[in-house]
Amino acid sequence: MSDPLVLFMPSGKRGRFPRGTTVLEAARRLGVYVESVCGGRATCGRCEIEVQEGHFAKHKILSATEHLSPVGAKEARYAEKRELAPGRRLSCSATIEGDLVIDVPQEGAANAQIVRKDADNRVIERHPAVHLRYIEVEEPDMHHPLGDLDRLKAQIRKDWGYNRLDADFHVLCDVQKTLRQGNWAVTVAIHHDEEEDAARIIALWPGLKNEAYGLACDIGSTTIAMHLVSLLSGRVVASAGAPNPQIRFGEDLMSRVSYVMLNPDGRQAMTKAVRLEISRLVDRVATEGGVNRSDILDAVFVGNPVMHHLFLGIDPTELGGAPFALAVSGAVKARAADLHLGLNSGARIYMLPCIAGHVGADAAAVTLSEGPHRQDKMMLIVDIGTNAEIVLGNRKRLVAASSPTGPAFEGAEISSGQRAAAGAIERVRIDRTTLEPRFQVIGSQLWSNEPGFAEAIAATGLTGICGSGIIEVIAEMYLSGIISEDGVVDGGLATRTARIVSQGRTFAYLLHDGEPRILVTQNDVRAIQLAKAALYAGTKLLMEKQGVERVDAIRLAGAFGSYVDPIYAMVLGLIPDCELKNVSAVGNSAGTGARMALLNRSFRREIEEVVRRIEKIETALEPKFQKHFVHAMALPNKMDPFPKLRQQMELPPCKALSEEPRRRSRGGARRKAEILKPRRRCTGQSGKES
Amino acid sequence: MSDPLVLFMPSGKRGRFPRGTTVLEAARRLGVYVESVCGGRATCGRCEIEVQEGHFAKHKILSATEHLSPVGAKEARYAEKRELAPGRRLSCSATIEGDLVIDVPQEGAANAQIVRKDADNRVIERHPAVHLRYIEVEEPDMHHPLGDLDRLKAQIRKDWGYNRLDADFHVLCDVQKTLRQGNWAVTVAIHHDEEEDAARIIALWPGLKNEAYGLACDIGSTTIAMHLVSLLSGRVVASAGAPNPQIRFGEDLMSRVSYVMLNPDGRQAMTKAVRLEISRLVDRVATEGGVNRSDILDAVFVGNPVMHHLFLGIDPTELGGAPFALAVSGAVKARAADLHLGLNSGARIYMLPCIAGHVGADAAAVTLSEGPHRQDKMMLIVDIGTNAEIVLGNRKRLVAASSPTGPAFEGAEISSGQRAAAGAIERVRIDRTTLEPRFQVIGSQLWSNEPGFAEAIAATGLTGICGSGIIEVIAEMYLSGIISEDGVVDGGLATRTARIVSQGRTFAYLLHDGEPRILVTQNDVRAIQLAKAALYAGTKLLMEKQGVERVDAIRLAGAFGSYVDPIYAMVLGLIPDCELKNVSAVGNSAGTGARMALLNRSFRREIEEVVRRIEKIETALEPKFQKHFVHAMALPNKMDPFPKLRQQMELPPCKALSEEPRRRSRGGARRKAEILKPRRRCTGQSGKES
């Protein structure tokens, strides 16, 4: 009779094991990560598994709970004391007695999007760089006068096996007291980030310690977002966000770099500011999660290159001009104490690699999260800020570039522009006949022509127009025939409506005739044309590098990407034509990438390897970029008259399309059903009269 | 025609290499450490070698300077700019053109005793854990936007080859500026302490940096001694010593441990005190050597377990009682910044392993320096303090123990005792007939019966009697018949001389009848008997473990060991009988061991391995210890009536013997020729009358 066959899900790893082998041991031998702190003592409960019952014909397995050994004394004692959910068993105690399909619970999955599926249905498992180990240490023996730490290390090696094991310096000072407090039983935290690398004891506690936490933090130029995550279950315990306090030194990246260049202590001031805010966020998530700061042992940070440098304390001046040299592009590993983050004394930090001088660790995190390198589809990832970071590719090949979009998409350089904040216009519709506008303002779900709108925005007022609002109003102006294909506001319409306002030699569209008066000027249109042309030209360059005419999927990352409506982005020609259902906003994608790197060190190796092989295209050095840029100035683009989009907007009728719910909405607001009715240019003709 | 044969001295490594191979390359392939910072650019001059001319019949080599390529352009340029001593060549430029015997200069050798020979004539080469590497880095390239640090690392790997190379966090913040200052050429300091371990960039400078320094520091309970050493030549640049400021918390080790137990912030206060004093010593040696503190990159510390713990910031309380558990016994590696030592930000520290709870890193350093494990002779190493640390063994086997001698040898528990300091009596002679004493005082080279003595000691005065003085006076009292074999002061002699003074039921010897009045009391004799019995019993125990009746060589380490006269130590029975010529004081041996570990990382591995295999004997747990102790109370010992010593003292006449110069002298004082005339007990008889 051959040994039973055991299949572990969701990894799908399988193998045969002699009867009597514990499930934990089988998992280990197959390289399936099952958490265990107590090392098989049936006390920590971290190694719970479930048996899937049934006949799995494809795998030739008849799996049944009876194929596990009955609950023994130790396991029963645990179930009594700590509660074992029905169907759950402790894998350190349950032994294999027949064929089994074992489910390793991935608690983080539903909650935190940690388990993501790529095209291959690959499921991601947890394998953090910091883990807890419960150790029972021999008492001191005068015959063998090994030091406390040395006996502890020897026991860890014996119980868990590490090639090389060192201890952080601060551990030396704690080890005696902790061993005695725990009556020679302690839990150690071990940092072990690479297979071949040395493992290090970074912290220790008396007795059994059953929980440890990590941070995943996305340092945006505008917003810092943080998640507090259990390293043992993957659960997101608390999340918080705050404005980046560096805004007071400069609204956008380049003005912050200038600040450093002009002020001798500018770099220090900004580094201090961002670290302080991060420390405050730690307080918030720790309080919300009921977690002690000293139980936070690992932290992953992502950010664009300037944020990356300023957070680490590196002068970002070089990033302000060619050749845009990064001080360090590879992943950065350090101790949280080096950055004075006030976590556990032994806590580590990890920053994802930067792709290039303008394509940062945030873009790497989005890449890790969206996984173009894990699939065959040609995926375009666009993260829009002052520069657009663009990654295009699939399993075979990845290319990346940044395009100098300027800050227009962020509301700068726009006459009534502002950052996305309460009071800003974010959605605009223009009646194709009357050319009358209606709009939505951040903070309210009402359209401006709906009853109660004035009251709804009373608290914040109406303050300006943000990036997504600018995109929509200009796209609507184009669809309504107010601006021509080459972006000229049609002054002839002034005779039909007071919404068209003369401004010397050019005309503007009066979006709001109140306080404040909001105009969309010819210059505003030009600014958006320049920005979108830069973005599109960069994308086009990468498509040429890949030798493709079309992309299969588009991911819009970052704050702007979250709020912009993909339809309008496509109408205006920010992004190339694509099936609408394959276009999605992935606003929190950088944060997700950070969480993945936090919870599984394999993702660190994966993104390090991916970033190494991404081909970096410097748009400024590519002669074709200028040509693409000029062509992309037109509305939508001379190169890409969005046949897919047009097709979808006409057949089936546009209504169905536009009713598709937004993938991500601010404040739970849902876009009302409405009709995008392109009046003239949907035919591709350039006629301009109605 | 076969390839030329090249022999490197002093290592003796040899091999054949094709003509045209550089000498540096040949050395590397043979694993001969030849320094090179610039990596073969003929600019650093660190790779100088010399050719030994002549016919080396034993090696079948006819070596001649013409067997090296002629001086080329690069080498000539170097010689012009930097001066190349006659006969010296740069091994990176000179190529092999015929058979050669190459001398790799060991500059540290003569100066600093770094090169030590053991019984096998083995010569120790330099191979420090921190080395400098000059690197020319590629400029940033927008097509390949690798970070500055990443390009630097890539170039280091390419030029010098490291498996894994990381950088200290602080390097991230310096790399940009330094690369640009050096116009893309920098010198990096790399810490690479173990073959398989990751190397780390710990510091960098613009352009070529040609010198770096390390510290070797022996933290004694009484004195801290420090050497500043060039890591590139091995030369000792400066040395300094200072009293351990912890003395104000407690004279001896146990009183310092008590201080910690009784004072909540005692540990911190003592840690701070010793680190502050070490920092002051760094200032002194740096100033004396004309060296910047930030050029100090590595530091090796040794000390007994209590000093070791307090320096590292570890509570030493556990060392105050059984089982005398060390917090850490293995070698400790840390960053100097962890201990706030104010060296280069990336500087490392290394502390040698401790052997047992009472046998510390200082004993390990002495073992490393004296090398019992490198020879066949049975060597006894004794380091006397409050506890005597004893190591006995040879290549095959090493055993170690500590014996509770108490502080009598340090002058404590002795009625007129004091630490070895100016004003203390350190040498004593007693006339065998008149029983009149004469003595020498620390700070003067005159005997007390010589003209000018009073004036010579006027500055310091006469303050007491130190350890070596006590040993001598009691040995002399024994040799003069004042005390019996069982240590009783003979009151009967009071009738012959006023030097014998009644003290109730016991008698004392009046060593100095002035201010102060110095008596050697019966209690003093008893205290020394107890101390020496403990020491001898420990030694005897180890000899039994080794199964030997005699030892071949004795090394007396530490301050007491430096000052005590081996003859008197043997007369009194502190140490077992041995050929006098094989007994030597090695007072600076711990410092030498520290320097060895500083200059060659192989010594770190060597002592780590040796300490692991030393068998630790706990005297308190050995039933025979008590028996040996009782037997060793007699003068000299019931077990060991020093036949060797007696033989040497009688044949040839004692005079020759006692004229042998002292191996180590304080203040350059040389022992005057004098006669040790044992009056009665040299015959081994126990008769007590004259």
Note down, in words, how this protein is organized:
By secondary structure, chain A is an alpha/beta fold. Chain A folds into 5 domains: 5-105, Beta-grasp domain (Ubiquitin-like (UB roll)); 130-206, Ubiquitin-like (UB roll); 213-351, 2-Layer Sandwich (Nucleotidyltransferase, domain 5), CATH 3.30.420; 371-407 and 527-683, no CATH class; 415-517, no CATH class. Chain A contains 19 helices and 29 strands. A 6-stranded mixed sheet of chain A has the order 14-13-12-15-17-16, sandwiched between helices. The first copy, chain A, is elongated, with a radius of gyration of 29 Å. Mean pLDDT of chain A is 86; it is low at 108-124 and 650-690. The interface between A and B is large, with 53 and 53 residues.
Helices and strands in order:
Two copies of one chain form a homodimer.
Chain A: E1 5-9, E2 14-16, H1 23-30, E3 48-52, E4 54-56, E5 61-63, H2 73-82, E6 88-90, E7 100-103, H3 108-112, E8 130-136, H4 148-160, E9 165-167, H5 169-181, E10 185-191, E11 199-206, E12 213-219, E13 223-230, E14 236-243, H6 253-262, H7 266-289, E15 296-303, H8 305-312, E16 332-335, E17 348-351, H9 361-370, E18 379-384, E19 388-393, E20 398-403, E21 424-430, E22 437-441, H10 453-456, E23 464-465, H11 467-479, E24 500-503, E25 506-513, E26 517-520, H12 522-546, E27 553-557, H13 558-563, H14 566-572, E28 583-586, H15 589-599, H16 601-613, E29 615-617, H17 623-631, H18 643-650, H19 654-659
